[in-house]
Amino acid sequence: MHPTPSSNAYKILVVDDDPDIVELLEYNLRKEGYLVASAPDGRKALEVAPQFGPDIILLDVMMPHLDGIDTCRQLRAMSRFKETYIIFLTARAEEFSEVAAFDAGADDFIAKPIKPRALMSRLAAYVRRDHETSAASETIEINGLTIDRTGFAVFQEGRKISLPKKEFELLAFLAASPHKVFGREELLQNIWGNDVFVLARTVDVHVRKVREKVGDHHIQTIKGVGYKFNAD
Q: How does DSSP classify residue 113?
């Protein structure tokens, strides 16, 4: 369960080996009413996270002992963090870093230097999205899948399939309009929003991850155009 949809109910874990960045984030997050914990590297984050129980994790990529990509992958392997928002903070803007982050299970990707006001706005959007989702109980049943938008869960022949939030939102968005073809830019706008800069290839990574979990036949690739949900 998520906490009540207000910022001060949310716990945020900051993972970064730069103490100045940690101090900056902790100050601004606490000023907004969030509960905050921090860790200096991925190894320590794996110790702190189960004790603290964060709703959102801000995770650096380049860290000693255990980098952000491997940390994210290990967090997603824990059942309690399969639906936790994981947002990468990194100075590395190379394409492979972003793709690797989403491939590991990241929900978002924010480049340094960090602009506190923009970050707070982004986090508020996540809190608001949880509120809107919980307020609108809706279930989609299509092509052998039951998609529970309230519980962020997918069921296939009685078997529950847990997806990270962005993968879930992508599947639910496509399933809500079966047979309609969506281009990558349209999917980016609807799933990630206008204020998030991510590559079009990010959509491809998420589609591949969803297919691995629910089966290849549910999302169809329309060459040169985009994707659609196959309801047949």
A: S
Average pLDDT, the chain: 84
157, burial (CB in 10 Å: exposed 0-12, middle 13-18, buried 19+): exposed
Spatial contact of 57 and 12, defined as CB atoms under 8 Å apart: yes
Q: Which of 97, 124, 105, 115 is nearest to 168 (CA)?
A: 105
Does the pLDDT at position 195 exceed 90?
Answer: no
Q: Which amino acid is at 169?
A: E
The reported pTM is 0.63
User: What strands lie across the sheet with 108-111, from one edge to the other?
Assistant: 35-39, 11-15, 56-60, 85-90, 108-111
Q: What percent of the chain has pLDDT over 70?
A: 87
Choice between 7 and 77, residue whose per-residue pLDDT is larger: 77
Residue of 154, 197, 157, 155 whose CA lies nearest to 172: 154
